[in-house]
Amino acid sequence: MRKVAFYTLGCKLNFSETSTISRMFEQKGYKKVPFTNTPDIFIINTCSVTDNADKKCRKVVREAQSISPNAYIAIIGCYAQLKPKEISEIPGVDAVLGAAEKFRLIELLDDFVKPEQTKVLASEVTEANSFISGYSMNDRTRTFLKVQDGCNYNCSFCTIPLARGKSRSNTIESVLENAREIAATDVKEVVLTGVNLGDFGIVEGKRQYRFVDLVKALDEVEGIDRLRISSIEPNLLSNEIIEFVAQSKRFVPHFHIPLQSGSDTLLKKMYRRYRRQLYADKVAKIKALMPHCCIGVDVIVGFPGETEELFMETYQFLNELDVSYLHVFTYSERANTPAAELDQVVPQKTRQKRSKMLRSLSHKKKRAFYEQHVGTQGTVLFENDVENGMMHGFTENYIRVTAKYDPIMINELKTVELTGLNAEGYMEVAEVEPVYETH
């Protein structure tokens, strides 16, 4: 029985796809093992959102070679689609598979015999035109359920349409089938994932559904305690979705809404499909219906033309906005994107300084959000994340909680009282009662 190990870089969607591919290997008789367990085959699923992601791929390849020098190394994912030739020149790489080929790698790689020359199997991204269903399993307490892939938006800084192709979706019935399979396991939380999740509904090139139709259908699936929307564009987050989540049985009060910039000037240069007022209106709508809702924000700093004045527009906009945390991305030039051709390039030191300012603001926002909930009750899903005798988990509205380790509580939902923040910024809870079985 040959051993195969997987390593995933990047987003939740990549995790769902890696897990799906790993199950394909297991069905063919391969044994899935940890990365450090001298496997015969390494499958590395890559991201290419920033230059840093590319460097990470090279580092993982070197690490794989040091663990198992004779192992077969195959690279898949966004970086593999965008720069197959570049990856094929990394010492130790045996195969590179593009977006249309990655789900066929067992069939395409001839029993994983190391070739004399690196195999490059990466067709044009237009060939990645079918939707491959998938979800993560047995990797984490929660499952990432893939419902959509690709993107038609072509933002000026983004390579995702070049790496994943056009927007396409699963059918609602097929998503529900996956959800029922997950419900039959001991998974308590499902996170919906996609490249442009709110654009769900394009099947075989035609729009057949709306995202809100999927949300309403999933809310009826028995056996899943929590459903979470991973990330949704502000212009696609309709009032109907917000109103439904506010009274939902299973969808939790947590939205992650990319902003990218608080300056309308820069939003226009980024080819974003909204302006800051629409974003502010969405936040106000959510908070009016769900004051306890957690709202996360993606923001890019150092985009070409971002003057000090325009950066401060973003900073002030976020400072006054009732959001809970920020994911801060430092802009990096990506080949074949319109933004890479723009002038008024922001110096790297300025980009780093602005990133630091926004990360400090994020820390302040998160702390304020947590402090608002001290003295209230929350329901925590405890994860197998144990450190120094303490376990961790998240409330329904995404507050990270720490409590004394109790093995019976892992992957259990427990209502607790939130008592205060510790030095690491986690929420402490009133003593969690141990669970005793009665006979």
CATH homology superfamily name of the largest domain = Methylthiotransferase, N-terminal domain
Average predicted local confidence, pLDDT: 94
Sketch the major β-sheet: 6 strands, parallel
Taken together, the total number of domains comes to 4
> What is the total tally of β strands?
22
Which topology of the largest domain does CATH recognise? Rossmann fold
Could you please describe the fold and organization of this structure?
With 439 residues, this protein is of the alpha/beta class. It has four domains: 3-127, Rossmann fold (3-Layer(aba) Sandwich); 129-252, 2-Layer Sandwich (Transcription Regulator spoIIAA), CATH 3.30.750; 286-372, Transcription Regulator spoIIAA (2-Layer Sandwich); 377-429. 31% of the residues lie in helices and 24% in strands. It is built from 13 helices and 22 strands. The relative contact order is 0.08. The mean pLDDT is 94.
Show the helix and strand layout:
Layout: E1 3-8, H1 12-27, E2 31-32, E3 41-46, H2 51-67, E4 72-77, H3 78-82, H4 84-88, E5 95-97, H5 105-108, E6 119-121, E7 134-135, E8 142-146, E9 148-149, H6 160-164, E10 168-169, H7 172-183, E11 189-193, E12 202-203, E13 206-207, H8 211-218, E14 226-229, H9 239-246, E15 254-260, H10 264-269, H11 276-289, E16 294-301, H12 308-320, E17 325-330, H13 348-372, E18 377-387, E19 390-395, E20 400-404, E21 413-421, E22 427-429
Parallel strand pairs: 1-2, 1-3, 3-4, 4-5, 5-6, 8-11, 11-14, 15-16, 16-17, 20-22
Antiparallel strand pairs: 7-8, 9-10, 12-13, 18-19, 18-21, 19-20, 21-22
Helix pairs in contact: 7-8, 8-9, 9-11, 12-13
